[in-house]
Amino acid sequence: MVNVADANDYISANCIDIEDWTDADEAKKQRIVNVASRTLAVKYPSYTIPDAAVYEFANVLAIVFNDTNRLAQHGITGFTIDKVGSFDYKDSTVSRPDRDLSKLIPQTAYDIIGAENGVKLNKRAPKWTVM
């Protein structure tokens, strides 16, 4: 069963960009793990979802929903901190909260789920084209 303590251990040992995860308080980490687990379970109801896949996705959600990116999600296009820095956002760079969270699932999580279930999953989906 997924939990914050195991997520802390996994993310610290297996993920590169972990600052947003480590900076989050325990309550936020629990919410992130819950959302990651639920999103994967809804997307793949017939597959076994390994804890590692949840933790990989949780780390991505921590980055997307960090304090700075939250401002962009709420419509802030830019701000300046006096003598410290300036931050500007492009509309396409930060996920909006109303978007489908399953689009944020990293390929690593797909690989882990696929390996556990003996299937090949890919972030890219086949699409119809007209020629």
Q: Average pLDDT, to the nearest integer?
A: 84
Most strands sheet: 2 strands, antiparallel
Spell the H/E element sequence: HHHHHEEH
Overall helicity: 40-55%
Tell me the fraction of residues in β-strands, as a range: 5-15%
Can you tag this structure with a few keywords?
mainly alpha, two-stranded antiparallel sheet, 6 helices, 50% helix, 131 residues, single chain
Give a written overview of the molecule.
The chain is mostly helical and 131 residues long. 50% of the residues lie in helices and 6% in strands. It has one domain. A hairpin with a 3-residue loop joins strand 1 and strand 2. The radius of gyration is 16 Å and the shape is globular. The mean pLDDT is 84.
Brief overview, please?
The chain is mainly alpha-helical. The chain has six helices and two strands.
